[in-house]
Every structure is written in structure tokens, then in C-alpha cells.
Amino acid sequence: MKKVELKKHHVVTLVAAGIVVAALAVPAIVFGPELFAFFADGQRLQAWIDSQGAFAPLAMVALITFQIVVAVLPGEPLELGAGYAFGFWEGTALCLVAGLIGAVIVVALVRTLGMRIVELFFSRERIESMRWLQDSARFELVMFLCFLIPGTPKDIMTYIAGLTKCPLWRIAFIATVGRIPSIVSSTMAAGFAAEGNWMATAVVVALTIAFVALGVGAYAVIVRREKRCERGADRAVKDGASVVRQQKEEHRLAA
Description:
By secondary structure, the protein is mainly α.
């Protein structure tokens, strides 16, 4: 009886996950170019947010959450839009709430559907290029450091994190807190722009560009180091297997 109930629960879970995936994938496929243009057009995005009235904060959270889950859409215009429409503090808070919700949804989908949901949004080559993160012995620390760096591929990292055994709440925490530097730079610049303080806006943008440039270099160093550690671990495993085979052969000959 318990096995039957377990199978029913599994089927219901898969059906529910399939509905969620369809709800995300169909608009992304059918309206892909239009959605991309909408997310990339700051003025158009701002006009839509303003038209939502009292529901504007909820609409902003929903848009950012949708962007994180359908990870092929650009996220920077939304962070800028949040800062411009709601100011630095509220815009930052909305982005963080959406980041938390998006991370939970992504990990839940990956844990339910596995590689199928990841391949829905990313090519096999792109997934393989992130294998170093999934196989890292210091996964949580490395992921947190990479999230802190502006300009890193945070959305695919969240999907890859879902393939690991790391608890959902830890991934959600890392993905949310790690986005703070990127979110703050965007909402602060947009907030100053909304106030007409162009000097402050220019300073924030200049500092952001400098941090992104440094971040790209730091990210490349982290990737190389983790890949080198991964190759070293693979060699150690192969060497250990070779030693075991040699010992077995020696025992066989001695017998």
C-alpha cells in the first residue's frame, strides 16, 4: 500500500513539475525574441512597471524571479529598473527577495527533473564547461566566491548547484547573499540616475566596470584552479586503481 502511495506521489510531483516547466518554456520559446527585447529595453520595462500601480513591487519580484528561472533572459536591466523605479533600498530588497524565490524554484525543479530541466535552458557544451563547479571539493565556498564577483554566470551556476547534494537552503542562501554586490551596484547607479545625480551615477558605473574587470580575472583564476584540482583528483584515482590492479596481479602470480 505504501509503495502505491509513493508511486502516486512521484507521479503527481512529476506532473506538477511538468506543468511548471511548460509554463516557463512555452512563453520563452513562443515569445522568446519579444521577451528578450522587453527585458533588454530599460525604458519599456520601466513603463510597464509604472503601469502596475500598487502592484508594481509584486510585478518587479515576479519579473526578476521569472528571469532567474528562464535563465537565458538578461537580468541586468531588471536590477537597473528596480533601482530606478523604487530607489536603492527598496529596489535592492525586491531584487534579493526575487533572487531567493528564484533560487528555490530552480533547485526544486532540478532536484525533481534532473538534467532534463538544465538542458532545456543550456546547451550540453555550456553545462560541461561548468563541470568544475559541480565536482569541486569546496563547492559551497567556490560558489559563494563566484557569486560575489560581478559579471559571473550566476543563473547557470544556480542550475548546476541543483545537481549537487548541497542542501537547498544553503544554495538559496549562497545564491541570494552572493548577488548583493551585483545588485547593489545596479540599484545604486539607477537610484542616483532617478534622482538626477549624474556625478554619483558616473562614479558608481566606473567603479562597477572596474570591479567587473577585476572579477573576470578572479573568476578565470578560480576556474583554472578548480579544474587543476579536478584533474589532480582524477589522476590520483587512476593511479590508485592502477596500484590495486598491480597488487591483485602480484597476488595472483604468487598464488
